[in-house]
Fold this protein.
Amino acid sequence: MKMNKTLLSAAVAVGLLSTSTVTHAAGFQLAEYSATGLGRAYAGEAAMADGADAQWRNPAMLTYLEGTQVSVGAIYVDPNIDIEGTSGANTPANSKDFAHSAVIPNFYVSHKYNEKFALGFAAGTNYGMETDLGKDFGGANHGNEASVTTMELNLNAAYQVLETVSIGGGIRYIMAEGSFGAVSANSISQLGVEKGDALKYMEGDDTAWGWQVGTAWQINENNRLGFTYKSEVDLTLTGHANGHGFNFGQPNTKDAGSMDLALPATAELASFHQLTEKVAVHASINWTNWSSFKELVADFPTESVLIKEENWEDNYRFAVGTTYQMTPKLVLRSGIAYDTSAVSEEHRTATIPETDRTWLSIGAGYQWSEQLTLDAGFTYILAKDAKMNESDPGVGGADMFGGSFEGEVTGSIWLVGIQANYRF
């Protein structure tokens, strides 16, 4: 039974971390919270206040928004990710365009209660994506499918404590679900396992609470600094598991199981500088506490099993953007960002092809009327090629069902977003 549970646990780890091949910030993190920010590569977000969406990155910016404002939009994500490699005795292990496209929606409302106090509500996501390598993938014994979906609701408030200083904070409610699986890459007749049979599959969900705080300092009329911090959020994805790896000969039998997942703490330091009447520059440095992700442990009713040590590293993101007020109604945006990997070369595996990413972004905003502004953004993300080597030898290990895997992930991601901002 312990060997079976270890196999199941490995499958859960594989599924969870397969999502990192297609997410657009480090680890399995998403950055796409608005099309407005997308057009400048999310540079300087904690110091920007274009609309109600500003509270997502820094709740203190609510004090910069007049009246009641509503912001709604969506970003279409089109990943083009390929993997090429070998498994076992030089068996080809390739999969083309295995990351699914997705639409990421968002919704924000802000209300300036008086000259110093403001409230806001936000709905969006910070994590999630879906991959499907296919049952014919040569390394499917190390994982062939994964999906992680999260939805986050915020209730935020901000207060102007001084003429030049504002503070803000909020409560975060996160809903998460995921499914992860692996199939056998070969047949083992003595065990009754056929090629393509489910070795281990698990799905589960959970909800949890978190918090965020932020501050903004208006240095002078043309210069502003912003800082924000989001807490770590602890989830326990609880559901069922099935497959040969859990009950040999009874792959459809479902058993209870769960895995703890911590969404890491993050921080951002940002600046905004109005250089001329028409030109502004903005920049930001983001930090994510991925070093808290040291190991994966699967929990069962009778025991807990250590899957493996991960030893991730803290991630940093550097972004610089520009805003050009071309006409009284038309604003142009651009930006570039560099997102560092959350895992070193020595720890990269087939399930964690984490790598550096470069963002190239452009965008525009048009004031349709005194109340309505329409924004659009476009980004191309170039991911650095990532090599990996995964091996899980021994009795019951993944290698037993198809051998070790060695390969390289390559690809890029296109992002297109639209946003509507209305001021009452």
